[in-house]
Amino acid sequence: QVQLVESGGGLVQPGGSLRLSCVASGFTFSTAMMRWYRQAPGKEREQVAFISFTGARTEYPDAVQGRFIISRDNANNTVYLQMNNLKPEDTAVYFCNAIKDASTYWGQGIQVTVSS
User: Fold this and answer.
1) 95 neighbors 106 (Cβ within 8 angstroms)
2) Per-residue model confidence as pLDDT tens digits over 45-95
3) In whole angstroms, what is the distance from residue 30 CA to residue 18 CA?
4) Which helix (H) or strand (E) element contains residue 50?
């Protein structure tokens, strides 16, 4: 059974940092493309980071480029999202996403709140 379990969210002040983790199980993690998405209240879910199988390629939208860093540890079936210089507009529920062959999997989501 596939599971993606996120952790590391919480409340942080503007300018602060958080690192999200997503531990995967139930599939061959090292051959899955991994992404992080977020969804703010009243808004559509949006992708904020992508990482290839080996971690050699990463992609970010302009809104988080230079502030967010995605990485993965294939030995421990974990993908990370380091979020720096957080802004109030980064407040959202963050979701881990895996695409393996023709299937897409989602974590349950974790809240990140940026507020003073």
Assistant:
1) yes
2) 999 999 999 999 999 999 999 999 999 999 999 999 999 999 999 999 999
3) 24
4) strand 46-51
Contact by Cβ (8 Å): 78, 23: yes
Residues contacting 107, CB < 8 A, separation 6+? 4, 5, 6, 22, 95, 96, 97
- Under DSSP, is residue 75 helix (H, G, I), strand (E, B) or coil? helix
Whole-number pLDDT of residue 102: 85
- Phi and psi at residue 109, to the nearest 5°: 95, 150
Cα-to-chain-centroid distance, residue 27: 18
71 is written with which tokens? 């990485």
- Provide the strand spans (E) within the chain: 3-7, 10-12, 18-25, 33-39, 46-51, 58-59, 68-73, 78-83, 92-100, 103-106, 110-114
- The pLDDT score that the predictor gives to residue 100 is 85
Query: Residue 113: pLDDT above 90?
Result: yes
The H or E element that residue 11 is part of is strand 10-12
